[in-house]
Amino acid sequence: MTPFTRRRTVAAALAGGAVALTTAYSTTATPATAAAGETRRHEEPSVAGTAKIHYGYAPDDDIRFTIQARGYYTLARGTFHFSHSGTAPDGTRVTGKAWGTVDCLATGGDTATLTGTIVRTEPPGLISGAVGFSVSGSGGHQRFGFSWGILPPPADLPRCYGIAPFTTVTSGRFNVRHVAPPPGTPPWLEGGSKLAPLKPHAGASRTA
Q1: What pTM was computed for the model?
Q2: 187 pLDDT tier (thresholds 50, 70, 90)
Q3: Which of 22, 38, 84, 174 is 20 to 30 A from residue 95's alpha carbon, by CA?
Q4: CA–CA distance from 93 to each of 6, 51, 58, 97, 122 (Å)?
């Protein structure tokens, strides 16, 4: 995988997710049903917020993340930003920043994992490729993980695979909203995929 194989603009991600969701869940039966479908499209899992973290390998540095993401799994869209300020060996203060787009979001309770692609950094070339994040906990006990804190970038990180939340949030917070996916075959598995949910054979018991 090249560093920018999975690069997508926010507009493209939003358009792709909206088209897929509309195709999967739209209905023309009645106005009431259409309204219900519209409500379902807006009731999506999400992660939003800004937080400062404590990173054990750089305990005195100022490291902050901002995430705005919503949607089901590979239909998710959104953006992320991080900044890292620290002191160089010569005593000067240096800051690195990066921006990217989200390509997957999975939630469960107060836990979320996300992946995305770096699209711009300051200074240029600071980090590139696919990255992953994780959020866990709520209130004053939230934890956060970012892939390049453990894996050397750029890493060939699969979509939807976040890293364990190995740092602590010291200020700010991420709001995780979990919404169970709608019933039926996920839109990205339709069309005869071998990964589609299996149907039991006639006479088979699901409790066997």
Answers
A1: 0.70
A2: low
A3: 174
A4: 33, 21, 14, 14, 14
